[in-house]
Amino acid sequence: MEKYRELVDYLLSSYPNIIRPALGAIPYPYLIPGGFYTQQWDWDAYFMANHLCSRREPKPQYLKYWVDNFLSIFDPNEDTPACVRADEKVIRHPSLILKPFLARGAVRAMKDNHDEDWGREVFPKVENTVLRWEKVRRDEPTGLFFWYDSMMSGADNNPAVGDSPEDVNQVLSCDVNAYIYAEYLALSEMASLLGYADKAELYQKKAETLKAKIIEHLYHADENMFWNRRRDGRIVRRNAFSNYIPLTFGILDEERGRALLKDHLMDRKMLSRYGVRSLAQDDPDYNNECMIVPYSNWQGPVWVVANYLHTVALNRYGLKEEAKEVTKRLAETLLKDLHNCGSLHENYCAECGGGLAPDADMNKGKEGGFISWDLLIVDMLEENFPEVFPKA
Q1: Tens of pLDDT along 350-361?
Q2: pTM: predicted TM-score of the whole model, two decimal places
């Protein structure tokens, strides 16, 4: 395990490459993924900011800035975009909408920054972003939520969600419903801390109701598996990373959750030598192409953020050894990339472990250069091997 310290040291020394001062239309300091990126993106910066919160010398201000920068482009009658740009251009496109992470970011930012006044100020807008999902992206017959398309989900070409015209606003996906379940819980916690007892109870009940609907409509007991579902009732049996996100948030009971993770996630069709695949190896669309423009590739390659969410699930269900195994395989992949390239990539070939995007043509002549949620391998090592990697 000691050999991975080089990887940890590299990532911890990378902060100057991801932290940017306020610029143009971005009113507060912000985090970029590295590489050729200049904007504040939603879930990239969310996971980076949470990483910074968890350091021995925490930097929780960046999670607060993350919230504030998105609220700077908030409109109560519109979807909040997925990125904040310095050039004042607000991209309001249905595929580029803020993913439902804002409430979780806000409640942690309020607690870690010890700033209840700020929490009270932002709560109405944060609440509005969740209520917006109820208004425009909830299927009333089932009570479940849907992505516009796979690009909106962040897993830009996930075939379990789809990109074709007939898929638009049609797939009740496991991941979006688990994320909104977590948003309800975060709103309930934030409301409770602010003394809004009625709202705390309201959002707790909404979370419980959604959890029950996820199990009713997306969980299949005969297969012990979560599958996406189309709004017309058809089941989408595509074994993708998104199917496992309900386990990240503990939506299934312990016995069935443990069995699902062992039987499906840890199966060789999902777990490669280099980490967990983003799509099962036996899927007809499975590939490991180097792709980032127009979409990054979630049809097979290994992604650090997905593996992080999976190890959270594995630990939640008591599968400690499995979480350690995933962490070791992923750390080995990233360390080899660091040795071969001198930097890291956004995703990795699940068959050979090589870094994929961004390549030199995509990244202004530089291979790799990606940091973003690759920082999460540090958190994974600290969580799963604390005797070797105490919190840095």
Answers
A1: 999 999 988 878
A2: 0.97
Q: What angle in degrees, to the nearest 10, is found between the helix axes of 304-316 and 42-53?
A: 50
pLDDT tens digits for 222-247? 999 999 999 999 999 999 999 999 99
Q: Are 325 and 311 in contact (CB under 8 A)?
A: no
- Residue 354, classified by CB atoms within 10 Å of its CB into exposed (0-12), middle (13-18) or buried (19+), is middle
**CB-based contact 26:69 (threshold 8 Å):** yes
